[in-house]
Amino acid sequence: MRKIIHIDMDAFYASVEQRDDPSLRDRPLAVGGSRERGVVMAASYEARAFGVRSAMPSATARRLCPDLVFVRPRFEAYKTVSSEIRAVFEEHTPLIEPVALDEAYLDVTDNLKGLPTATEVARDIRATILARTGLVASAGVSYNKFLAKVASDHRKPDALFVITPAMGPGFVEALPIGQFRGVGPATEAKMRRLGIQTGADLKARSLDELRAAFGSAGEYYHRVARGIDDRPVRAHRERKSIGAETTFSEDTSEYAVLAQRLQPLLDKVWAVAAAKALAARTVTLKLKFSDFAQITRARSLTLPLADRAMLEQVSLGLLRDAFPLRRSVRLIGTALSSLHPRSDDGGPRQLDFAM
User: Fold this and answer.
1) Cα(112)–Cα(91) distance, rounded to whole angstroms?
2) How many angstroms from the chain centroid is the CA of residue 206?
3) If 0-12 CB within 10 Å is exposed, 13-18 middle and 19+ buried, where does residue 235 land?
4) Quick one: which of 181, 167, 102 has its CA closest to 135?
5) 103 flagged as catalytic
6) What is the edge-to-edge ordering of all strands in the sheet holding 160-162?
7) In whole angstroms, how far apart are CA 243 and each of 265, 270, 280, 282, 310?
8) HSE toward the beta carbon, residue 156, CA cutoff 13 A
9) Facing residues of 247 across strands?
10) Among 112, 131, 320, 333, who pairs with 286 as Cys (CB 3.0-4.6 Å)?
11) Are 70 and 60 in contact (CB under 8 A)?
């Protein structure tokens, strides 16, 4: 039986800001956006007490918490701290699956320090992270990834919780359906309409019923409702996409303005792809409107993008295809996908636009 730890840093971006600027400590803090525009990327626990959450429009967050302090994100600082945390993980196991800068799964079935239990490993990791970075991590320990994630969320912040094999099935039965990994708001609403409120309700449904209602995800729900998750910790996950987006200080529906604001995003995603020696065949454009509705437009090519100029050509074509716009735009984004390692000769010689 495997021993899996899920580490999740508590309010990571906000905690880094409060650590680095003592004047922000113990204050409700939002990272991202501004007092009037944009979206909250992260919120301190002081802000969460007022109902402020990530992905919330900044204006809504300010209404909930008039004293909310907004700070701009500092991604280089977060990446530096994330690397320090990763170094702590590597002292215990090579089997590390990063989920984000602040989150990772670790397989410590065999740990490098020879500690007797996964709980001891998690305790040591949390203490070392705190000592080296001044930041708090929550940890979940269990025998599979699904339950380790559930455990890390169970008593946040500053938590260490263990779900043993004996506890697993009963713990899942009592779990509210919205706390299942992979059940988003739309799926949760659908499940509740079907009378599925808890893990026990989910477990009571047959595999055929779940497949009929949720397609290919039905098998996953059927298994995790029984505390079963055979997914391994993947130490070398392939990157699926490279993206960037920006929220405007003022909405716009002018093509020229949107095209101009797309340029630095194209620079960013192309620079990341170049640094990672990755080639891409699919370009996606994202537009979020003044009413927060959004659309995406994508184009897949038969050969990878040859250079940044070709990326711009495809992206501007997608933008032109989105016109005319019925609403003004508050956010624009772009992403590269269908990624694979670039060839030694620098990649493809010529792009083929055949669809």
Assistant:
1) 7
2) 31
3) middle
4) 102
5) yes
6) 96-100, 103-107, 4-9, 137-142, 160-162
7) 8, 10, 12, 12, 17
8) 20
9) 331
10) 333
11) no
* pLDDT reported for residue 35: 57
Largest CA distance in the chain: 64
20 is in an annotated binding site: no
Which domains occur in the chain, in start order? Answer: 1-165 (3.30.70.270), 168-224 (1.10.150.20), 241-341 (3.30.1490.100)
The answer to whether the CB of 327 falls within 8 A of the CB of 281 is no
- State the Cα angle at 319 between 318 and 322, rounded to 5°: 90
Q: Which residue do the tokens 């055979």 mark?
A: 230
Beta carbons within 8 Å of 57's beta carbon, 6+ residues apart:
33, 38, 39, 40, 292
On whether 321 is known to bind a ligand per the annotation, the reply is no
Which of 139, 108, 150 has its CA nearest to residue 235? 108
Dist CA 165 CA 348 (whole Å): 51
State how far the Cα of 307 lies from the Cα of 346, in Å rounded to an integer.
10
Task: Note if the pTM is more than 0.85.
Answer: no
Q: What amino acid occupies position 103? A: E
The DSSP 8-state label assigned to residue 325 in this structure reads P
Q: Which of 138, 170, 143, 134 has the alpha carbon at shortest distance from 155? A: 138
- Reported as type and span, the H/E element at residue 260 is helix 255-275
pLDDT averaged over 10-residue windows placed end to end, the chain, 355 residues: 96 97 96 74 95 89 95 90 95 93 95 95 98 97 96 94 95 94 85 96 96 91 94 82 87 93 91 86 94 90 92 96 92 93 54 32
List the 69-71 sheet strands across, edge first: 42-43, 29-31, 69-71
What the block records as the tokens of 211 is 């497949």
